[in-house]
Design brief:
The complex is a heterodimer of chains A (334) and B (554). With 334 residues, chain A is mostly helical. Chain A folds into 2 domains: 1-74, no CATH class; 96-331, MetI-like fold (Orthogonal Bundle), CATH 1.10.3720.10. Helices cover 76% and strands 0% of the residues of chain A. Chain B is 29% helix and 21% strand. Chain B folds into 3 domains: 34-69 and 231-301 and 527-553, D-Maltodextrin-Binding Protein, domain 2 (3-Layer(aba) Sandwich), CATH 3.40.190; 71-139 and 148-197, Dipeptide-binding Protein, Domain 1 (Dipeptide-binding Protein, domain 1, Alpha-Beta Complex), CATH 3.90.76; 311-523, Roll (Dipeptide-binding Protein, domain 3). With 554 residues, chain B is of the alpha+beta class. Chain B starts with a helix and ends with a strand. In chain B, the strands form 7 sheets. Chain B has a 6-stranded mixed sheet. Chain B has a 4-stranded mixed sheet with strand order 1-12-11-10. Chain B has a 4-stranded antiparallel sheet with strand order 4-5-7-6, covered by helices on one side. The relative contact order of chain B is 0.14. Classes of the chains: A mainly alpha (334), B alpha+beta (554). Chains A and B meet through helix 2, helix 3, helix 5, helix 7 and helix 8 of A and strand 1, strand 9, strand 12, helix 7 and helix 13 of B. Chain A: InterPro entries: BPD_transp_1_N, MetI-like, MetI-like_sf. Chain A: Belongs to the binding-protein-dependent transport system permease family.
Amino acid sequence: MFRFIVRRLLQLIPTLFGLSLLLFIWLRRLPGGPETAILGERGTPEMRAQIRRSMGLDEPILVQYGRFVRRLIRLDLGTSTSTKRSVVTEFLERFPGTVELSITAMVIAVGIGIPLGYLAARRRGRLLDHLSVGGSLIGICIPVFFLAFVLKAIFAENLGWFPSSGRQDPTLGATRITNFFVLDGLMTREWDAAADALWHLVLPGIALASIPLAIIVRITRASVLEVLNEDFVRTAEAKGLTERTVRGRHVLRNSMLPVVTSIGLQTGLLLSGAVLTETVFAFSGIGAFVAEAIGQRDYPVLMGFILIIAVVYVLVNLLVDLSYSFIDPRVRVR
Amino acid sequence: MRASRPKAAVAAIAVAALAVAGCAESDRDDTSGGSKKDVLVFGVAGDPKVLDPSFASDGESLRVARQVFETLVRPEEGGTKVTPGLAESWTPDAAGTTWTFKLRSGVKFHDGTDFNAEAVCVNFNRWYNAKGLMQSPDVTAYWQDVMGGFAKNESPELGESLFKSCTAKDATTVDLAFTRVSSKVPAALMLPSFSIHSPKALEQYDASNVGGTAEDIKYPEYATAHPTGTGPFKFKSWDVANKTLTLERNEDYAGNKAKLKTLIFKTISEENARKQALRSGDIQGYDLVGPADVDPLKNEGFNVLTRPAFNILYLAINQKGNPKLADIKVRQAIAHALNRQALVDSKLPPGAKVALNFFPDTVEGWNGEVTNYDYNPEKAKQLLAEAGASNLSLRFHYPTEVTRPYMPSPKDIFELLSADLKAVGINVQPIPLKWSPDYLNATTSGAKHDLHFLGWTGDYGDGYNFIGTFFDRQKDEWGFNNPALFAQFKDADSTADPAARVEKYKALNKAIMDFLPGVPVSHSPPAIVFGKDVTGIKASPLTDERYATAEFKS
């Protein structure tokens, strides 16, 4: 098990190296650079040239890349060209928002998706099945930003049940410890601040959960249907086990492998999905930050974001692989 | 009996929650929530970049600076005229190169130290003696734009500094000496980048130490956490994780104290999201209202304020890439082909006007007697035929994914203008480009852009800030070399007498419209909106709104 984990972590190094080189070259191949974004319509060619030179952007790409790697080894991702703050600091302040949002979305997606998929399979061909299959198709098809917009228009703007933007009401003046606002509220016993932060997570959480929810419903349903037809289920039923034991211990557990794999993949995708959701809800996470960085040609932020996504993706999938042996003891990680 | 796994998981989460609960101290003061009636949350489009306005050129940083700091002179409330700020009065010497400012007394910085002539000199000397990375155009953009250079320039692109020296004659009298007469003095000193900071705070937080490497500029602590001015609001906190910046009332303010106790700027980058946040009560005002939202918001009872137009949208014609465009008749034909009134009526916000000059009529030096190119397609065709350019084909650049105060919907503007051009037989080749950086790069360098539109919002109330920026030297954007025009600009800029300078601006506007380097299209009034119960704010053409006078109707 230990060797497995180490080996998987070591695989990260060539992955990150290749990815960063590719991205580094690709980003700098894009026409224009941060200097135009910084100066706007006020820039002259001379001013732009001076900024390019001062940022070292006029040097050969490999020289720039070498400097990037040397810094990366010290876990320094450089300074954002648009905010002039360290990229690591920026991410530390914004990453907790994205994590809170992703966890909320995943809790919604898993909490509703697995039971719904399971029930749909058990009642195959009946109304609930049709509703959940049709609903999940809609969930996959509706663009996240559109759903986010509609949710906001109805539940924030018209009904006023939920806040329409941000992570917390700024007039609360809440204390910041970890920048995980819910956790901070609990830690400092500022219960109103924790509740307010949770309240702010509901609408963006639902919007972000829509696609993973739909996928989890479909995969759970398909997987449960397959397992229901297995011989061992029939044997278990024939043995006279209670329906509850057959369902919980045999059917559900055996259908979970593909579902868990999909949850792992979805978690990685959530980070990219957050770019849209966070922008629509003015939610301060890395998603919204990166959306701005693209327009600003903020190379260090974009590089940092992709590298962090890659690391999160690898770590989440490592957890998924480890969970296989937990769900199905026949699977051994080596 | 062993607990089932889900039950165990729930129990574990509950134990963890109990374990963290109350494990850290709350630093919230009891009054921070306050009454909602003296807390205004205002939605802005972006985070401020930096809190020291010496290093800022983006609108959001300057908006914060205008509440925290004050300048020697400031624009009149709701206008562009130069009026007293920290200085009560100012007079130039006979040569027009040394200006004596008489300062207000009894003013204190937020850290309790006194504002005086010495403090003014500390600030000017700090900017003038900038070294290293503080000389990057990315860092001190406005100083470089206005003053042109530093005591010791470290880059060949920099010129001789307009600023020469500062002398504190007594506690309330200060002399600012300049190397030449310039139209920029004193008007440009109203820019927030010339805000006066507390010398003690500048030293305490090492404010001039712009560090890092050329590639990774790092601002000093002062610029991110300790801005210390004399303004009606004091900086309280900048919560990057919640995209909010909080200011609190300066109880020791020398003038009328702010009516709000707390002013919070909350970043909501998307325009629609700002509108929704206003409607749902999350915020009590926002800036950059979409032109299409002005009337609906007014009808709903929101307080929509229209700023007097202080901008210009123009169609630029590049004479370098296409030799036909160097022919004045072709440029005149383009001007006559455009139905600018139809554009203003259909695509721009209420109150927009067709432009006759390259600056709005609120700026002194505007000239109503210039050559006017009215909408006349027949004349356009005739001029094209005379110039032998009946089969003219032009590359027309327009930006995507952007709205500017002077240009609410670039694609619509492009479609109308290109239809006008096609109607007189000009073949238009559309080139849409992403605003930043592609469009700005393509239209301000090289010579592959025949036509494009761009605009400008004035920084301060002097005509040179508009026409000088566009036409006082050779630029790739326009691709012409007109030494006589450039000389005329130099002469106007170095005229000390304001009245005489205004006359020269009028002559310049005439010369520009005869030469017709491009076509001035329109001036659009941008709007800002406040909640139904918020009053006391006057819209400013320079976006110099003063939140200190804002209050909630009881």
